[in-house]
Design a protein that fits this description.
The protein is α+β, with helices and mostly antiparallel strands. Helix content is 32%, strand content 25%. The protein folds into 2 domains: 3-150, 2-Layer Sandwich (60s Ribosomal Protein L30, Chain: A); 162-318, Alpha-Beta Complex (Phosphoribosyl-aminoimidazole Synthetase, Chain A, domain 2). Strands 8-10-7-11-9-12-13 form a 7-stranded mixed β-sheet, sandwiched between helices. Bound molecules: magnesium ion.
């Protein structure tokens, strides 16, 4: 079947049928009316974030498994809710679809989107579709909820706080580099790029225990994303390369090419949580969340010190990064 035969409303009905009911999701009315009707748990505030993904800029359809791409669209949005300490609840999906995309591709994309949404406890409650004269464009909005006194922002870091990151860094960027240069890689490494995980349970646990003074998810590389915390909190930081959490795949690649360390500093799309912790709360981390390791990578300093990186030889250098700028030629 072709999308043209199904038509816009047929397509929306098809999506509506595929959306699973989720108990306790607060959805009074989902897809199918002019608006969704949604409830928020008592005492909680709404978190909202939106992301635009465009073919050739954010993904390449010849490298992407459609199901994995659908899942990734959810995970990268949900990651922003995790970074504020919240739980994802609702998703909205906008699709501008090129004529070249088949119904099978769309069904696989939607299956990945919906199964990943369910994994994170979120329900698709609305969206829009139209024909694209150019590339596939995907717009995803996520809504989450968090108890009002547990919201974690970027602005609370203070000098002396420890800087922590979850998981390992640079794997997604290394996988992308392997894809770009057409080199083979372990499936585990490829999955870091194609099937990233949002750290929702960790973000919730940290927020509930009120441990982080500031938090962000690593979408543009640690240096750039830590830079956002430093700006918002008006502080500086000293990072130590020797403490960097790296996967065994990454270490192996690094042994062959030491310049790859740059990917663990500035590579994007790890979707790990980067957060600062006052020293009197560091001991709480030990028994918090055994499933995802967290690693201390540095210390918050006074703003005048800027962002410094101590390399493995003990040499210190300024490490201020700009991150990826879509508007730069
Ligand atoms: Mg973010």
């Amino acid at each position: 079947m072709k999308l043209a035969d199904l038509g816009e409303f047929g397509f929306i009905e098809r999506i509506q049928r595929a959306v699973a009911k989720l108990e306790g999701s607060g959805v009074r009315l989902g897809i199918g009316d002019d608006c969704a009707v949604l409830e928020l748990p008592a005492g909680q505030v709404l978190l909202t974030s939106t992301d635009l993904l465009i073919e050739e800029i954010h993904f390449r359809s010849d490298w992407s498994d459609w199901r994995a791409l659908g899942g990734k669209c959810v995970a990268v949005n949900v990651s922003d809710v995790a970074a504020m300490g919240g739980s994802p609840r609702h998703l909205y999906l906008g699709l501008a679809i090129p004529a070249t995309m088949t119904m099978d591709d769309l069904d696989a994309f939607l299956a990945g989107f919906l199964e990943t949404a369910a994994d994170y406890g979120a329900v698709l409650v609305g969206g829009d579709t139209c024909r694209s004269p150019g590339p596939l464009m995907i717009s995803v909005t996520v809504e989450g909820a968090v108890p009002a006194d547990q919201v974690v922002t970027r602005s609370g870091a203070r000098p002396g706080d420890a800087i922590y990151v979850s998981g390992t860094l640079g794997d997604s960027a290394l996988a992308l580099q392997r894809l770009q240069s057409n080199r083979p890689m372990a499936e585990e490494l490829a999955d870091c790029h194609h099937r990233p995980k949002a750290r929702v349970a960790l973000g919730r646990a940290l927020a509930e225990a009120q441990i982080p003074s500031a938090m962000i998810d690593v979408s543009d590389g640690v240096l750039a994303d830590l830079g956002h915390i430093l700006d918002a909190s008006a502080v500086g930081a000293r990072l130590e390369q020797a403490l960097w959490p790296l996967s065994s795949e990454f270490r192996q690649a690094l042994a062959e090419e030491s310049a790859l360390f740059e990917l663990a500093l500035s590579g994007g799309e790890d979707y790990e949580l980067l957060f600062t912790v006052p020293s009197d709360k560091e001991h709480l981390l030990a028994d918090l969340f055994a499933d995802v390791p967290v690693t201390r990578i540095g210390t918050v300093t006074e703003a005048e010190q800027g962002l410094l990186l101590v390399d493995e030889a003990g040499e210190m250098r300024s490490a201020r990064a700009k991150g990826f700028n879509h508007f730069q030629g």
